[in-house]
Design brief:
The complex is a heterodimer.
Chain A lengths: L1 E11 L4 E6 L2 E3 L2 E5 L6 H8 L7 E6 L4 H10 L1 E4 L11 H11 L4 H14 L15 H13 L5 E5 L7 H16 L4 E6 L2 H4 L5 E6 L2 E7 H6 L3 E6 L3 H10 L4 E4 L2 E5 L4 H12 L4 E7 L9
Parallel strand pairs in A: 4-8, 4-9, 6-7, 7-8
Antiparallel strand pairs in A: 1-2, 1-3, 1-5, 9-10, 11-13, 11-14, 12-13
Chain B lengths: L21 H17 L7 H27 L9 H4 L1 H21 L3 H5 L5 H33 L8 H26 L5 H28 L3 H7 L4 H13 L14 H26 L1
Classes of the chains: A alpha/beta, B mainly alpha.
């Protein structure tokens, strides 16, 4: 099922072109939107929410047109912005209840859902204290809670792991994954950190300078570029030369050699080469391919 | 060991398919939320002090007036002039509470969260404006209404001032709309609350001084016609002039206001200008 789709979507500002003929389709589950800062991710979200008109092209969110039906879209969509957006003098509970009411939930429902949602994102007793005293991780959770409180069908997360330490990052990513799977809410998550998205996404869209670079299922993406890394005590050049002779693609990376896996015989060739040259093998491992490789 | 009496089950995420009030419900909720905010309700004790102190000050003349009616059987305080006499208190309330409505959302960049919901920027401004108008109406209408109830209960040797009271009610509405538009427009230009308070109070002081000085100078020069216009620089006199022309009440202190629709047109123009400024301010915030 297609949750959202764009067709030759273009957005030109007086000085820059933020989106340039972008055509993508996003299905259910967790979809990663990857791009460097300024690649057009935030602009895309603003257009999809119906807050900014597109210069050219069209878009559909949940079968609705953002240009004319923004209101209906915003009823069933949640949005977590990248920047700080929380009033420090209110408690998380007060704030999330208010935001639930702004989504049109009746008063008692707003209270119940705010309490539920804050529990789901992992805020305990501290939710009654003013937000001003929260850590970055807690603030990110409140931002996520306000985007979830009205039970949207789709949720847009703009850099949810921004400013978090490694542990907070892991927790946030796990939470995003749960939203996409357990909660059954489709997620479009933006990030400029490619490595973290591959852990939680079903599908990844890579954009660069407002253009589509790649859109594929996560399996395809990592499979396409399998690499093994070899480290030997001495004679790295000899090994590289031998492998190149046999038609393998190799590259020296510091003290290790990376070899592109062409087919299964690559493993045999590598083993035989090491034995023939009588090298001391230190390490031989299959490197988990990273989305970064897409950019190489 | 005793058996646990209750067990907390993780029932997981629950979807919501109940009623959604949509845009209208959200706007009403924002209006009430903001109105409560202008009186510090649902906020800290500190934020309640100022609005309630000012509300108490507004009530004082009405209470004294009732006492005078009861004990001395004298005329109540003039209904149409109440707002002019108490203009300092109303102006301080406007200056202190306008930034409360607009500054935090601007300062902490909460606006995008509103706009990602069914609420539009016009709804947002409308709800804030309605909240300020309502707050000012409470401030202006409650004292004269209490005084009018007092007048009805006390048996005075003169007819009830019903017409004056009704005219003052109409004047209060005009006053509330004008002041709320100016107050929010000025306060919205800075995300800092202190600056917002200062700019609204500075605006009031400026109009107060300019109105008095220019009128004084022109009158001493014998230019009574021009003086009757410069007096309208003070928004409270402008409202009083419109009230006088609209409802046929006596002008405050017998001031020679220009007659006809001109004061009303000036008032409408000022409101339109303030609202345009307010809208432009939020358009800018939206684009950012």
């Amino acid at each position: 099922m297609t949750i959202l789709a764009t067709e030759a979507l273009t957005k030109r500002y007086p000085r820059v072109t933020a989106l340039d003929g972008l055509t993508v389709a996003v299905g259910t589950g967790v979809t990663g939107l990857v791009g460097a800062n300024g690649a057009g991710k935030s602009t895309l979200i603003k257009i999809l929410l119906g807050l900014v008109p597109a210069s050219e092209g069209s878009a559909r969110v949940l079968g609705l047109d953002p240009a004319t039906q923004g209101q209906e879209i915003r009823r069933s969509v949640g949005y977590m912005p990248e920047h700080d957006c929380l009033p420090p003098d209110q408690s998380a509970t007060e704030f999330v209840v208010h935001m639930a009411r702004m989504s049109g939930l009746p008063r008692t429902t707003a209270r119940e859902r705010a309490a539920d949602t804050l529990r789901h994102v992992g805020l305990q007793e501290e939710r009654y204290r003013p937000i001003g005293g929260y850590s970055t991780g807690m603030k990110q959770r409140v931002k996520l809670a306000q985007a979830l409180v009205h039970d949207p069908k789709v949720i847009f997360l703009d850099e949810p792991t921004n400013g978090l330490d490694p542990q907070g990052r892991d927790e946030m990513l796990r939470l995003v994954h749960r939203i996409g799977t357990e909660f059954g809410i489709s997620v479009l998550v933006c990030s400029h950190l490619l490595g973290e998205l591959e852990r939680i996404c079903d599908h990844v869209i890579v954009i660069d300078a407002g253009r589509l670079l790649r859109s594929s299922a996560i399996g395809e993406l990592t499979q396409a570029s399998q690499v093994i890394s070899v480290e030997v005590e001495e004679g790295l050049e000899k090994l590289a030369a031998r492998l190149t002779e046999t038609g393998e693609t190799v590259a020296v990376e510091g003290r290790a050699l990376t070899v592109q896996v062409r087919a299964d015989e690559t493993y045999d060739l590598l083993r035989d080469a090491v034995v023939d040259l009588d090298l001391n093998l230190v390490r031989l491992e299959q490197r988990h391919a990273r989305i970064e490789d897409v950019f190489r | 060991m005793s058996q646990p009496t209750g067990v907390i089950h993780d029932i997981g995420y629950r979807h919501y398919d109940g009623p959604r009030l949509g845009r209208g419900g959200a706007v009403v909720a924002l209006w009430i939320y903001s109105l409560r905010g202008t009186f510090g309700l649902g906020r800290t004790f500190k934020s309640k002090i100022m609005p309630f102190l000012l509300f108490g000050a507004m009530m004082l003349p009405a209470v004294v007036s009732i006492a005078i009616m009861a004990l001395l059987k004298q005329e109540p305080m003039s209904y149409p002039d109440y707002a002019v006499f108490m203009q300092a208190v109303t102006a301080i309330f406007l200056a202190a509470q306008s930034p409360v409505l607009v500054a935090p959302d601007l300062r902490h960049k909460v606006i995008p969260l509103y706009l990602s919901r069914p609420v539009t920027i016009v709804d947002y401004i409308g709800a804030k404006l309605a909240a300020m108008i309502t707050a000012l109406l409470i401030l202006l209408v409650v004292p004269i209404t209490v005084q009018f109830v007092g007048e009805m209960l006390i048996d005075l040797p003169m007819p009830l001032h019903t017409h004056e009271y009704l005219a003052a009610l109409g004047g209060s509405v005009i006053n509330a709309v004008l002041l709320a538009s100016i107050g929010l427009a000025l306060a919205s230009f800075t995300p800092r609350r202190g600056l917002g308070v200062a700019s609204v109070i500075a605006f009031y002081m400026f109009t107060l001084a300019a109105s008095a000085v220019l009128t004084g100078v022109l009158e001493s020069e014998g230019q009574r016609d021009a003086a009757s216009w410069t007096i309208l620089l003070n928004p409270f006199f402008l409202v009083n002039a419109v009230q006088t022309n609209l409802f046929g009440t006596q002008p405050v202190e017998g001031l020679p206001f220009p007659s006809g629709v001109a004061p009303a047109l000036i008032l409408l123009a000022v409101v339109a200008l303030a609202l345009t400024g307010l809208y432009a301010r939020y358009r800018k915030a939206l684009a950012a």
